[in-house]
Amino acid sequence: MRKGLSLRRHPVYRLFLWVALAASLALLWRMNALVLSNPKYIPVDDFSHYWAAGRLNTTGGNPYDPQQVQQLRNRIVREETSYATIPIMWSPPWSMPFVMPFGALDYPASRLLWLIAQVTIILACAKKTWEFLGGTGRTIAMAWGITFIFGPTISVLEKGQITPLVLAGITGFVYFAEYKKNDLVAGMFAVLIALKPQLYYLFWPIMLVWTLTFRRSSLPIPAGDC
User: Which residues, in sequence order, are CB contacts of 21 under 8 Å at separation 6+?
Assistant: First the structure.
């Protein structure tokens, strides 16, 4: 055990990690240019809806107007697309603070940062969930491997969906409500669950019953979600 720790503290090991990180980012940027930011791929990428909505909301436009979304999509796709093929972002208005920072950037850079954020969130949530279930740090690589060979994980990353933020909400809520006993922070994470209210609509009545049963009256429930 001590030998492993000393190896991790060695300058060569740290240099290797930085080189590997730089190489990974360069590979991601290349893949982003060839695939995710490719004008032929953008029309089937869910992130383009979030990016357009975030940019429109930042510049005073209507993020739920298909015509305005179409104009932005035409710029990055570099061709005219029909009105019928322009879907809008179906996430509720309170999702805007999460997509506006990405809408402020050019599409290629924004798409890459979105992918990095997704991978980071999924890694962190997998680690924390592994710990919930009794897993140790020495076997965390197994948890990450299982996570990233799971079909829906690959689909989420490929399409740039907002679901990883919901996963962060669920994981953070469980962690702070059950392990840290911090109801305020738990309630803040619950806001992320509300980004997909059509998927988790049963969470709110269950949360209300749970709050009353265990007398956690200080747990804030986001307004408009219950």
Answer: none
